[in-house]
Amino acid sequence: MTRKVTLLALLAALVLVLALAACGGGGGGETAAPPEDDAVAEAPPADDGSLHGDPEAGKAQFDTVCIACHGPGGVGIEGLGKPFTTSEFLLTVSDKELLTFIKTGRPISDPANTTGVDMPPKGGNPALTDEQLTDIIAYIRTLHE
After folding, report:
1. Residue 51: helix, strand or coil by DSSP?
2. d(Cα 138, Cα 95) in Å, to the nearest integer?
3. Which of 90, 93, 124, 135 has its CB 3.0 to 4.6 Å from that of 57, i.e. a possible disulfide?
4. For 103-110, what is the mean pLDDT?
5. How does pLDDT run across 79-96, given as a tens digit for each residue?
6. Residues 34-55 pLDDT 10s
């Protein structure tokens, strides 16, 4: 019986470590390349708070950072991250507000936190740029049913 408990504890610890690593807690040494001098400037946001991100690029970022808690295709993972497919919250905030929210995160102490798990700023990956976050938002907006 003790061996079984030890094995389960080790398995739980491994799952936790993998989940935290998948949340983008750093590492990898990958950074975004600096923009070229002749790079096209980002389009200014529309007056309604919309941002103009690239959903395809956003999916790639989502699949490396957000998927660990919000699941493939944003279906959510119970006890970790809310689903985007049915989120009423996403319907009530502009892209600019969502960008601010993602950059800030939602700690356990926030009364609106219903999962009991911190949403770290930038999903736990401080290297994400505003442009990458805008792309993620563009992708998330495609998920709502």
Report:
1. coil
2. 8
3. 135
4. 95
5. 999 999 999 999 999 999
6. 444 444 445 444 455 678 899 9
Instruction: Return the structure tokens found at 26.
Output: 């750093």
Q: Please name which of 140, 139, 137 lies closest in space to residue 51, comparing C-alpha atoms.
A: 137
Q: Work out the average pLDDT over 7-24.
A: 45
Q: Is 82 helix (H, G, I), strand (E, B) or coil?
A: coil
CATH class in words for 2-24+49-141: mainly alpha
Contacts of 97 (CB under 8 A, 6+ apart): 49
Is residue 102 within 8 A of residue 123, CB to CB? The reply is yes
What ranges do the domains of the chain cover?
2-24+49-141
The span from the CA of 130 to the CA of 21, in Å, is: 21
Which residues, listed in sequence order, are joined to residue 111 by a DSSP beta bridge? none
Is the CB of residue 19 less than 8 Å from the CB of residue 68?
A: yes
